[in-house]
Each structure stands twice: as C-alpha cells, then as structure tokens.
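To the wet lab folks,

You asked to see what we're planning to order before we commit. Fair enough. Below is the target structure as tokens, and below that is the sequence we designed to fit it. If anything looks off to you, flag it before the synthesis order goes out.
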C-alpha cells in the first residue's frame, strides 16, 4: 500500500515536471526578439509605436517613451541619463500579439548613437530595417546593417513613408542590393506614391489593399479596402495609367525578381521587402503578420561548450549592455541581459561565470510597453535589466550554479571620433587613469595609446560624439579630475588582423597614427577611407578588421 502511494506521488511529480517543462517550451517558442534599425527620422519610433498599438499595449500614438528623448539637445543629456540609470526604457519593449510574445530591442540613434547601439544587435534574433522611401539607404543604416550581416541574422525591410513622394521602388531595391549587398524579395508592391499613393499589391495573395489616409492619432488601424487585381471597381478607382503600370510591374516582378526563399531569409542573405506608411498605419499589420510567420523563436547560441539549446538547457544568458547611473551618490549600474535558454526564476541563485560567483540577481526589471516592472520570471528571448553590483562586464555569461560555459564574447566595434584626453592637474594621474580605465571597461569609450611610447598620451575613441561629454562629466564628477579633450583629425580605426604584426614595419601615409589598445592589440588611425586603401595597397598581405573579438 505504502509503495503504491509513493509511486503515485513520484508519478505526480514527474507529470508536474513534464508539464512545467512543456510550459517553458511553449513560452520560449512563442517568443520573437528583434531589433529595429534605421537612420534617424526614417520612422523607427513610429513603426514601433504602431506595433504596440496592434498588440494592444498602448492606446494612443505618440506615447512611446524615448521618442521625446530622442531629439534632445546635448545640454539636456545629463538629466536624461540620470533618469535612465534606473530605467530600461531605452533597451527593450515587450508586448503580446496574436499569441506571440514580442521583444523589440531599441537601437538608439541621433546623438545617442553609441557602441551600445551595435551591442544591442548582438542580443537580437532578427532585424527590421526601416528605410525612408524618399531617401533610400542612409549612413547609419549601413553601419548597423554590417553588424547584422556579421551575425547572419534575418533582415526584413520596411520601406516607409509611401504616403509622401518616394523614389522609384526598383531604384530603392537596387540600392539596397548594391549598397548593402543583400538580395531583396518584394512581398508587396506600391501603387504610386505621395499624393498618388493608392495602396499595395500583395504578391502572395495577389490582392490589392487600398490606401486610405486615416487620422494619425489614436487610430489602431487604417481602414483598408481589399480588391482583386482584376476587379473593375479597382481599375476605375486608380485610373488607367496606374493600373497599366501595376500590371507591368507585376509581370516584371514575377519574371525578374528574386524568388522568396525562407532558407536564404534565415541566413540573412535575402531580405523580404514591404512597402507601407507607418504614420498612417498602412501596411504595418500585414508586415507584422508576415514577419512573425517568417521568423523563428530564439535559436541556439554558440558557447565554449558548443551550441546551447534555448529550450533544453536551464536558465542562461549574457550581458550585452551596462548603463552607469549618473547619480554621484550611488554608483549603481544596470546590466542588460539577453536570456538565451530556459526560464529565469528570481528566487533562485545564479552563477556568474567570469567571477565564479554565485548570487541572486537584484531587482530584475523588464519593460512591458510603457511600464517598467520588477519581474520574478522571464524566458529565453527576453531582455531584462538587473542591478550590477560592480562585477559584470559586457559579454559576461550568467547561468545556473553547477554549469560552466561561456557564451561567445561581444566584439568591440570601431569608433569614429577621436580625442586626446588631457588631465588638467598632473598631480591626479592616478585618479585620472583609474577613471578612464573604468569608464572604458564599462564600454562607453575605448582608449588607445601610442604604439611605441609607454605611459604616453591617452587617445579616446567613441562611436557617438555625445560620449565625449559623458566622459568629461564623469571624470570631473565621479573621479574629481578636470580634463580637456583635444579633437584629433582621424575618422577611422582598424585592427590589424594578425595581432603579432609589428606596426613599425608597415608603410603608412603621413595622415595615419599607429596605436595599441589596452590589451596591446595593434591598430591604425586613419583620416579617410582613401588612406585605408593606400595602406593596404602599400603593405602586401596586410588585413584589417572593423570589429574585434578579444
Ligand atoms: P525615427 O524614430 O526613425 O527617428 O523616426 P520617427 O518615427 O521619429 O519619425 C520621424 C518623422 O517622420 C516624424 O515626424 C514622423 O511623424 C514622420 N513619419 C514616420 N513615418 C511616417 C510615414 O509613414 N509617413 C509620413 N508622412 N511621415 C512619417 P516629425 O515631424 O519629425 O515628428 P513628429 O512631430 O511627428 O513627432
């Protein structure tokens, strides 16, 4: 009898565990985690907002936090950053849509553009590239796109602002293919643009969605009338010229454009392209629906112990961003973690691989649409912010005690602005070095020294110029060191692929400078692209890297 009771209990426990792991599996499989990349003003914030409207996460447009902040003057920065020190607003938004749990990662642009923007892409499983139809591929998109390509993640294109005068759609596709080097597959096709914008033709369903401008405020979705391409009413509605043009386009696209190939999409070699207008909510829901069908739930990630399966492995993740709190009184920092496997349970201890320490993660937070909330659980695919007791570094792995693997590190990305950092009080050399080294370790700046001279000048490199102000402010306020930043004329830096190369043996144009990073890796500073090409030509076999994996 006793044996029978015991075995029933064991069965119950086993059943409970199976159910639990089934639940975890379901939660993970429903997740999609993507970043939106674009050049400032292409419509990234507007599109994000419309996604949230569809997900029911917000009720009115114009309420996505960060938008108001995205165009602030440099002088406002310190206050904003103080606020942000304890918020995860600028990092990830989560919402539910049609049974999916969607995490959108923000890639800040404008003055806020920094190395963090690149690092965020390391936490995404796919990317949505928003392009302004009147402008085409712009500088910041190119930079962010390169990181997506390095990661081989799927890239979806949303050609926005079709309600305004747009460039020829063929020309836009050609530009994407030529400038970015990715094949494109238009999923829908625009009928006119600007005042003449009539709607889009869906190449899959062969149906037309007619464009109707709606009030842009709280409208959840634009009223869309759907027609069959053969429909006489539709032909009359758009007029003969546009109809003929469309018929020609359809024939041309079916005959000449790249066929849809999910495998190529998965590898990031083919980008499905959608035309629409985020502001008027046209084409947004169709895009979201196609996107969700064409993307996968979190995929296995590479570690030094091989691929880690998100569903089978217990909780693990990595830190991709650290935000220092500007509040002088407490040097709090927030670390942002991408969960890569299993379920995070706030009541359980975790293991920080790099320090070898067991700990509980303090006040884990997540953003649900607009609300920041302390969470007690999260799943693979999610991003959360945790208070950093000063032990985390970018790229660190967190897993369950007893496990010992480390995820592949996060590369360092080439800065584009350089200054010589000078301590105004030479007596404070020690604090100066401590400050600059610590700030560099957080990943906000990179520091370099002359290749041949030890203890020489410090050269600071940043991805976005605002970081110079942050550095000056923090050096003065946190480390008590008054500093001066003397701008340097360099705009490019490259790591020498073979770190054993002796830079002194290289022939470089006069407007270059040979430096090394804090780990002793050799790099060269250049004033322009021409100078990079020249150096490569003059030194046979020399190779450069734009991203550096230590
Ligand atoms: P970003 O996050 O990529 O920087 O761009 P954001 O969404 O802030 O959009 C930049 C500007 O473009 C905004 O106008 C926005 O309203 C407008 N916009 C975005 N999508 C569309 C679209 O599909 N059609 C049209 N016509 N405009 C679009 P703004 O005047 O700079 O800002 P706001 O005053 O409207 O906030």
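Sequence we intend to order:
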């Amino acid at each position: 009898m006793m044996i029978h009771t015991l075995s029933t209990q064991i069965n119950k426990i086993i059943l409970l565990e199976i159910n639990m792991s089934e639940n975890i599996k379901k939660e993970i499989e429903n997740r999609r985690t993507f970043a939106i990349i674009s050049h400032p003003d292409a419509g990234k914030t507007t599109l994000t907002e419309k996604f949230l409207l569809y997900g029911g996460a917000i009720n009115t447009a114009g309420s996505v936090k960060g938008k108001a902040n995205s165009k602030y003057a440099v002088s406002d920065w310190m206050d904003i950053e103080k606020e942000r020190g304890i918020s995860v607003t600028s990092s990830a938004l989560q919402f539910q849509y049609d049974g999916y749990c969607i995490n959108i990662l923000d890639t800040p642009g404008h003055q806020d553009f920094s190395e963090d923007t690149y690092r965020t892409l390391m936490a995404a499983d796919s990317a949505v590239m928003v392009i302004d139809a009147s402008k085409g591929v712009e500088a910041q998109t190119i930079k962010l796109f390169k990181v997506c390509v390095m990661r081989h993640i799927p890239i979806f294109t949303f050609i926005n602002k079709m309600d305004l005068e747009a460039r020829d759609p063929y020309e836009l596709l050609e530009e994407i293919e030529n400038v970015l080097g990715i094949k494109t597959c238009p999923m829908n096709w625009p009928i006119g643009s600007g005042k003449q914008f009539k709607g889009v033709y869906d190449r899959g369903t062969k149906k037309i969605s007619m464009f109707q401008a709606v009030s842009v405020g709280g409208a959840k979705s634009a009223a869309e009338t759907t027609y069959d391409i053969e429909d006489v009413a539709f032909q009359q509605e758009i007029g003969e010229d546009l109809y003929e043009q469309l018929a020609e386009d359809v024939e041309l696209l079916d005959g000449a454009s790249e066929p849809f190939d999910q495998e190529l999409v998965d590898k990031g070699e083919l980008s499905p392209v959608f035309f629409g207008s985020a502001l008027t909510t046209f084409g947004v829901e169709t895009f979201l629906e196609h996107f969700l069908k064409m993307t996968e739930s979190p995929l296995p990630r590479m570690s030094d112990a091989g691929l880690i399966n998100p569903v089978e492995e217990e909780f693990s993740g990595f830190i991709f961003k650290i935000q220092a709190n500007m509040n002088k009184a407490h040097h709090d920092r927030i670390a942002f973690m991408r969960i890569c496997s299993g379920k995070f349970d706030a009541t359980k201890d975790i293991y920080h691989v790099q320090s070898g320490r067991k700990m509980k993660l303090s006040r884990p937070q997540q953003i649900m649409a607009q609300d920041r909330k302390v969470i007690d659980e999260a799943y693979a695919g999610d991003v959360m912010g945790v208070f950093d007791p000063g032990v985390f570094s970018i790229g660190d792995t967190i897993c369950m005690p007893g496990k010992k693997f480390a995820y592949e590190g996060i590369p360092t990305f080439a800065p584009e602005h350089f200054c010589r950092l000078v301590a105004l009080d030479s007596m404070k050399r020690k604090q100066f070095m401590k400050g600059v080294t610590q700030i560099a370790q957080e990943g906000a700046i990179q520091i370099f020294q002359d290749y041949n001279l030890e203890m020489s000048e410090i050269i600071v490199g940043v991805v976005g110029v605002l970081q110079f102000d942050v550095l000056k402010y923090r050096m003065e306020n946190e480390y008590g060191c008054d500093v001066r930043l003397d701008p340097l004329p360099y705009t490019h830096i490259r790591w020498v692929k073979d770190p054993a190369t002796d830079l002194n043996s290289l022939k470089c144009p006069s407007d270059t400078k040979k430096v090394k990073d804090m780990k002793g890796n050799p790099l060269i500073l250049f004033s322009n692209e021409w100078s990079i090409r020249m150096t490569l030509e003059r030194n046979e076999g020399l190779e450069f890297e734009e991203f550096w994996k230590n």
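Structural context that might help your review: The two ends are 62 Å apart (CA to CA). The mean pLDDT is 87.

Thanks,
Computational group
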